[in-house]
Amino acid sequence: MKEFIKNTLAATLGTIIGFLFLSFCGLVFLILLIISGSSIPTISPNSVLKIELNGALEERYEDSPLNDLLGEDYPTLGLEQIIGSIYRAADDKNIRAIYLDAGSLSQATPAMAEEIRMALSDFKKSGKPVISYGDNYSQTNYYICSVADQVILNPSGQISWQGLVSEPVFYKDLLQRIGVKMQVFRVGNYKSAVEPFTGTEMSPANREQIQSYLGSIWNNMLQAVSQSRQIDPAALNRYADEFLSLAPATEMVQKKLADTLMYREDLKEYFQKKLKLKQAPQIITPAGLENLPQKTGPKEKIAVYYAFGDIVESPSSMSMSEIASKEVCKDLTELAEDNQIKAVVIRINSGGGSAYASEQIWHSIQMLKSKKPVIISMGGMAASGGYYMACAGSEIVTLPSTLTGSIGIFGMIPDMSNLLKEKLGLNFDAVKTNRHADFGTLSRPFNTEETALMQKYIEAGYQLFLKRVSEGRKLSLKQTAQLAEGRVWTGEQALENGLADRMGSLQTAIERAAQEAGIKQYAVTAYPKPQKWYETLLQDQQTDYIQSSLKSALGNYYEHIQFINKVNAMDPIQARMPYEPNIN
User: Fold this and answer.
1) Cβ of 170: how many Cβ atoms within 10 Å?
2) pTM for the predicted model, two decimal places
């Protein structure tokens, strides 16, 4: 009886505390809403836009007031928000400069960094300066910040500059220890997505393609930094080989990687003198720009549809970054029927996923293209299933360092019979009416006949992929086959071999969409429309907290752990490259 009373009191107390906490949160949210609606935010004259380059960079990210209230272990940045704020700052007469606060970006593909750098370069055409400051510049951040008019370094700081490396993680031995073997079916010598599960090192073909695209990306970085900093590319390469990252800060200035050394607390006075102001400027953030009243634009619109993450058939709770074909196809149909939408830009940042879902989205893009121009903007990746989608567009615009191609498919089905029988001591018996009634059972691997049937099915899917690319890119099947076999190309290489039409950013794709639609005055609107933060409050906050903690703890290994977690939920037939190429 004593334990019963004790447990009852504990449960009651817990309920009361929970109710009080929710009531407090509700009161805070109400106050936030009242405050946000009580005044119209404005930008003071002589303001400076501060962009913090620190955290996990995603294609698109919706912030929540809860993040400010409860905090994040590892902040998440939205590329869409950063790029949009840069272009808006260029047009706003009250914003005098951009201040880049360099830290460390993770999950930032070379092409994503490249796009930020291109937007900053466009901003400088307005005649306003870009100033960067860093205690320790990561290599990605230094590449971005090197476009600045002034690169400022902490007197005890560092600039990382050592070259690029791709270091795939292999899971074969781990799976073997727990009694799991992957049954793999693929077409193409370069289709390397299965290698982490079947080997312990890169195949010669995979090593060749990685060396090729790493060399292309590094060369682009060298040329860009060389032009901005007026340093010979050969010297920059030599600095990387010398591992200049550990050199004293004074040497960074001597070698022209930085302009001057300064402590952070001296920045306000520096900006005041640089901009010739009577007092220190007001610092605003990209989020602050988003809260400003939006001007009423023309009725004619260009839609930018963001498609990023794994390609799946139906949305799951495992990841917020997914391209779910059921939702995407529905959205594209609505865009096709909207008479105010004169053209659509589909922004793709995906290493692929389900071959079934990729085919469904390809068909929807074809239907959309029959009614209005569809321009594809390729972001960090548009490979395998991502390229399957892209080849359906009217035109493909790529960034030089985009990872694309990877035209091929594979099947990967785990054989867990050893785990179940030898490790766990489970035994199976079966009665069946037909020879293949137990096809795909967990209790045994595929037999010879089933293996042959699966391989034939994969090859048929590969031929369909080749046909889609051939028709979309107006290439012969023979030409397409030579570019396929799962080979990964950079955007720069894709432009040369016919897999893309022109080089440029998302802004370039928007301008091309307007030209194709024959309109000069238009508004740009983003899709899919995000949910309000309070609509998914509890779910999102729990997910954000868990994901933020994992990113902070696992760093560059976060995506690999996520990939393993997703394997069992994947469709058996995949059109994908490794989700995270692991370029550092």
Assistant:
1) 15
2) 0.84
